[in-house]
Design a protein that fits this description.
Blueprint lengths: L2 H7 L30 H21 L8 E9 L8 E12 L2 E12 L6 E8 L4 H4 L9 H5 L4 E6 L15 H4 L13 H16 L5 E11 L1 H12 L5 E5 L17 H7 L22 H6 L5 E7 L7 H11 L1 H6 L15 E5 L2 E6 L7 H14 L4
Parallel strand pairs: 4-5, 4-6, 6-7, 7-8, 8-10
Antiparallel strand pairs: 1-2, 2-3, 3-5, 9-10
Helix pairs in contact: 6-7
The structure holds beta-D-galactopyranuronic acid.
């Protein structure tokens, strides 16, 4: 079957809440050996690692940890479109494994007047914005908005690790550093490669004295939001993990099967998820996990989900439920006093609580100044800056 025929063969896409099956979701707080998860120790040493391993095996593929060397080359770039209010560092990250080297470029904008290490946002970018055009008006990565709030703004383009392209996605770390992953059913694909890239950015941030790496947020929109959540689940160094409208395979519950489905995403983007994930095409009920457990895997560090009203393809309600149900780890294991509305309403709202944040805005699928304003407010609150 060609891709076209596969699309026709799959279950029809719908947006009808009455067709959503009764949800039977795998438990966050029961281990695979049947044990009840009760303490931070149970969570951090047993349940969280086994969930992350399950997501690697069944959904995203692996994020390999091994390499031989990492080196950083930093150049101050005095001429840049944001020089009025920020200093730009262009960072080249060299990662070597088995005699081969991959180079990633990162741009890091620092507020001009900072006199101590600043908290930072790292955007996983799939839109070739900033890195290619330096477009000053770009709302997707609004440097001025971020640095004016006292944060550093970093961006890396996924192109440097795995191009967002079905024909070229291996041209990067899969061909160069981890070729053995290409033939494994649970091998790294695009999303895991992007998460790997974000983890390397954190490796750099920890070495930069102008940045406070203990207050770092990873953020992505849509496909980048899926990668951001997967980054935060894998790498516990991130203080805040932010998904903006990540939808299917991101924050949204797969088992609701509304809007984008597993079959549709695997057919449209076969290079994002592991081959194992394809076994769940039109079989979401057989998935041994769901995305609320990915959100839970970020606990006890902070997690944030942003949605928009018209973004029905990404299932805003499924994103909300996933956050609400997944966040039981924060309340039941870490004793946070969380208060989510009983019933979900598709209404503009902001729920900023300790370690768990949410907003729903007007409008369509995008990462906007409004979204940035909300996550900046949330970070201020987490870090006690306001
Ligand atoms: C869509 C895809 C979504 C989402 C989106 C995006 O075409 O179906 O899962 O990732 O692209 O990245 O904007």
């Amino acid at each position: 079957l060609g891709a076209q025929q596969l699309v026709l063969a799959q279950r029809p896409i719908h947006y009808d809440e009455s067709k959503v099956p009764d949800l039977i979701l795998p438990d966050v707080l029961v281990g695979y050996d049947g044990s009840l998860i009760k303490t931070p120790g149970d969570w951090e040493y047993q349940r969280r690692p086994e969930l992350v391993a399950k997501f690697a095996d069944q959904v995203y593929g692996q994020v390999p940890k091994d390499f031989d060397q990492i080196a950083f080359e930093v150049k101050a770039q005095p001429n840049h479109p944001h020089s009025k209010y920020s200093n730009l560092k262009e960072v080249a990250i060299y990662i070597s494994r088995k005699g081969k080297t991959q180079i990633m470029q990162v741009k890091l904008y620092l507020p001009k007047d900072a006199n101590k290490p600043v908290p930072v946002f790292v955007l996983i970018s799939h839109r070739n914005v900033e890195t290619v055009t330096g477009d000053i008006e770009n709302r997707f990565f609004p440097v001025e908005q971020i640095v004016s709030r006292g944060y550093a703004a970093a961006i890396f383009d996924v192109e440097f690790v795995s191009p967002d392209d079905p024909d070229r996605y291996t041209v990067g770390i899969l061909d160069e550093l981890y070729p053995e992953q290409k033939t494994m059913p649970n091998g790294m694909k695009g999303l895991s490669a992007w998460a790997w890239g974000a983890v390397r950015v954190m490796d750099y941030l920890e070495k930069d004295p102008e940045v406070d790496a203990s207050r770092a947020a990873v953020i992505g929109h849509s496909r980048g939001g899926k990668a951001a959540l997967w980054t935060g689940a894998n790498d516990t160094r991130w203080a805040i993990t932010i998904s903006n409208e990540s939808g299917c395979g991101g924050a949204a519950l797969s088992k609701r099967m509304i809007g984008e489905t597993v079959n549709r995403i695997n057919t449209g983007f076969p290079y994002w998820f592991s081959d194992n994930f394809k076994a769940y095409n039109d079989k979401e009920d057989e998935l041994p996990l769901d995305q609320h457990q990915l959100i839970a895997s970020i606990a006890p560090r902070a997690v944030y989900v942003g949605s928009s009203k018209d973004d029905t393809w990404a299932d805003p309600k499924g994103e909300f439920l996933s956050l609400k149900i997944g966040s039981q780890v924060y309340s039941e294991i870490y004793g946070l006093d969380l208060d989510f509305p009983e019933d979900y309403k598709l209404e503009v709202q902001t729920i900023h609580q300790k370690n768990v944040g949410y907003h729903l805005r007007e409008g369509k699928h995008d990462l906007t100044a409004y979204d940035w304003g909300k996550v900046l407010d949330f970070a201020d609150m987490q870090y006690g800056l306001k």
